[in-house]
């Protein structure tokens, strides 16, 4: 590329659509302000414009992009790109072939290609595309799509595939497109990281998130902040779980006790939002308080926005699911994602009905979670295993023959911490896997002991930026199980009823010294 031409930076890629403009600003103003807010590359897409009008518009936009040193690509129309001297073009599968476009534009222009399958992606890379627009991530009104939205995991499959191609002639870059906004940006970037190597996409492409707002500069700034978080601060971006992955178990134990101490000492009181089931809601609120957190059970969809900035962590538990509750869960998870608030997902009885399975699949596709916690049958249902069956909310039988492989593999696939409860609890972030051998059979004799584990995890994993989710999860799991052991050993506990009340007392009484001395933890991977 000639020195005077702008550098290809795909971090925040704006695709225009003049049909979406809010009315108060022209397309040129919108692009200008969006660039000031942090857009790094612009594609002018005018599907219905007459050639002359398209060229006039492209010249005006080019002035703005050149001033900012940002590349301008023209969608589909090689003639328009040539006429105005744009920096390149973006083509789809139905447009002129990549080889022809390259021949016409020469080696120095940027050519991007929309790809929707492994085959299309491979062909575009082999044909010398400068970048791929991998789509469609989510359903959108912007463009009539012929292929079903693939969700982040489908996008990741394509990204992973192209990065594995032997001997590419140039570095492979890619963005994804389709329904991306500031709410899902971090989730999309996190969950499209390759399974081998943890390599993120180069950026995200947006249309309506910027074009349809009154404040394109602000919208672009928000997107940039989210992309920066995902690429630099999300726990998947950090040299991940460096604490949990140290060989020295003493280091892990100390980190766990530190996380516990922060809450116990009162130096931090996490505000733990729950949208949980009707059976356990009161027990979970009391457990949260007893551990040093502050519970807040906000469920109404319209009410999710206001408290969101001060929520420390969010528990989503589908125990007594109803349609209206799902709307509230979606609104809460959307806000949590915007604020990078850790989400603990408890897929209660997910194997019991197709409805539950569908709700969980959609929540995971659209928002993901930082922690998924379930008993063996719930994890089996999610991971697509037939090995462990459920009966209602309970897991049947003795569990998996290889629980470590199951939790580790599922955690890798979901890009989150997975906690599988039972007589032995397994916790994994996909790289390190631990067992916790604390707890008491009386926990299985009261309802909601699994749901209270969700509360405990969320209480200790109160900040994605400051707490390693696996360390926080170990702290929550060990603390609640030690409380159960202490309660069960008391003379005044005569059975499940007195155990239930005493269990809360012992969560309140547990000291960091007891955690340190009595936690039975084993590294399995
Ligand atoms: N036999 C046992 N020995 C020790 N701890 C146990 C035993 N059974 C369950 N637990 C503990 O109880 C807690 C809940 O785990 P469990 O697998 O029973 O959850 P669950 O089936 O989801 O519960 P629920 O549906 O009642 O909420 C975990 O902390 C686990 O360690
Ligand atoms: C019994 C029960 N049914 C739905 S949720 C719940 C609480 C334990 O998971």
How would you portray this structure in words?
With 525 residues, the protein is of the alpha/beta class. The chain folds into 2 domains: 12-233, TIM Barrel (Alpha-Beta Barrel); 249-523, Ribokinase (UDP-N-acetylmuramoyl-L-alanine:D-glutamate ligase, 3-Layer(aba) Sandwich), CATH 3.40.1190.20. Helix content is 43%, strand content 14%. The chain has 19 helices and 19 strands. It has helices at residues 27-37, 51-68, 78-84, 98-105, 118-126, 151-163, 185-191, 208-211, 216-233, 249-264, 281-291, 323-338, 354-366, 376-383, 403-414, 449-460, 469-488, 496-509, 512-518; strands spanning 12-15, 41-44, 72-75, 88-91, 110-115, 131-134, 174-176, 203-206, 271-275, 294-296, 313-317, 343-346, 371-375, 390-391, 394-395, 417-421, 425-428, 433-436, 521-523. The strands form 3 sheets. It has a 9-stranded mixed sheet, with helices on both faces. Strands 1-2-3-4-5-6-7-8 form an 8-stranded parallel beta barrel, surrounded by 7 helices. Strands 14-15 form a two-stranded antiparallel ribbon. The longest helix is centred in the last third of the chain and has 20 residues, at 469-488. The two termini are 47 Å apart. The model has no long low-confidence stretch (mean pLDDT 95). It binds adenosine-5'-triphosphate and 2-(4-methyl-thiazol-5-yl)-ethanol (TZE). 2-(4-methyl-thiazol-5-yl)-ethanol (TZE) is lined by residues 277, 279-280, 319-320, 348, 393, 447-448, 450-451. Residues 277, 279-280, 319-320, 348, 393, 447-448, 450-451 line the site of 2-(4-methyl-thiazol-5-yl)-ethanol.
């Amino acid at each position: 590329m000639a020195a005077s031409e702008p550098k290809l930076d795909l971090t925040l890629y704006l695709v225009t659509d003049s049909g979406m403009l809010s009315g108060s600003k022209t397309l040129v103003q919108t692009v200008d302000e969006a660039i000031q807010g942090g857009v790094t590359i612009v594609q002018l897409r005018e599907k219905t414009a007459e050639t002359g009008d398209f060229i006039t518009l492209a010249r005006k936009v080019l002035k703005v992009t050149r001033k900012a040193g940002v590349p301008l690509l023209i969608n589909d129309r090689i003639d328009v790109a040539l006429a105005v001297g744009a920096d390149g073009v973006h083509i789809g599968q139905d447009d002129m072939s990549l080889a022809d476009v390259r021949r016409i534009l020469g080696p120095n222009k940027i050519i991007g290609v929309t790809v929707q399958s492994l085959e299309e992606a491979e062909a575009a890379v082999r044909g010398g595309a400068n970048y791929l627009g991998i789509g469609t991530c989510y359903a959108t009104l912007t463009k009539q799509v012929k292929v079903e939205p693939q969700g982040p995991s489908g996008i990741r499959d394509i990204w992973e595939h192209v990065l594995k191609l032997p001997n590419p002639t140039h570095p492979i870059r890619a963005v994804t497109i389709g329904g991306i906004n500031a709410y899902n940006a971090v989730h999309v970037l996190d969950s499209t990281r390759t399974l081998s190597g943890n390599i993120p996409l180069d950026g995200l492409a947006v249309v309506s998130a910027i074009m349809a707002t009154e404040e394109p500069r602000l919208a672009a700034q928000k997107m940039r902040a989210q992309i920066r978080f995902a690429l630099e601060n999300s726990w998947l971006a950090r040299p991940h779980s460096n604490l949990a992955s140290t060989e020295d178990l003493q280091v892990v134990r100390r980190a766990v006790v530190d996380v516990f101490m922060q809450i116990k000492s009162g130096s931090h009181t996490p505000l733990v939002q729950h949208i949980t089931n009707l059976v356990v809601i009161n027990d979970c609120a009391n457990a949260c308080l007893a551990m040093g957190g502050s519970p807040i059970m906000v469920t109404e969809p319209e009410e999710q926005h206001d408290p969101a900035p001060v929520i420390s962590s969010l528990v989503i538990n589908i125990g007594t699911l109803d349609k209206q509750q799902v709307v509230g869960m979606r609104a809460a998870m959307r806000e949590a994602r915007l604020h990078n608030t850790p989400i603990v997902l408890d897929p209660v009885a997910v194997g019991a009905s197709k409805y539950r399975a569908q709700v969980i699949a959609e929540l995971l596709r659209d928002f993901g979670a930082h922690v998924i916690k379930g008993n063996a049958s719930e994890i089996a249902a999610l991971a697509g295993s037939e090995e462990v069956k459920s009966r209602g909310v309970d897991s049947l039988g003795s569990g998996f023959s290889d629980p470590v492989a199951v939790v580790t593999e599922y955690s890798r696939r979901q890009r989150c911490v997975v906690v599988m409860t039972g007589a032995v609890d397994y916790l994994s972030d996909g790289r390190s896997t631990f067992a916790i051998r604390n707890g008491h059979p009386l926990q299985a004799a009261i309802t909601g002991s699994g749901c209270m584990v969700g509360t405990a995890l969320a209480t200790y994993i109160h900040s994605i930026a400051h707490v390693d989710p696996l360390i926080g999860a170990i702290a929550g799991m060990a603390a609640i199980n030690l409380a159960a052991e202490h309660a069960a050993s008391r003379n005044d506990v005569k059975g499940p009823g007195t155990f239930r009340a005493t269990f809360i007392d012992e969560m309140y009484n547990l000291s960091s010294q007891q955690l340190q001395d009595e936690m039975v933890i084993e590294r399995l991977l």
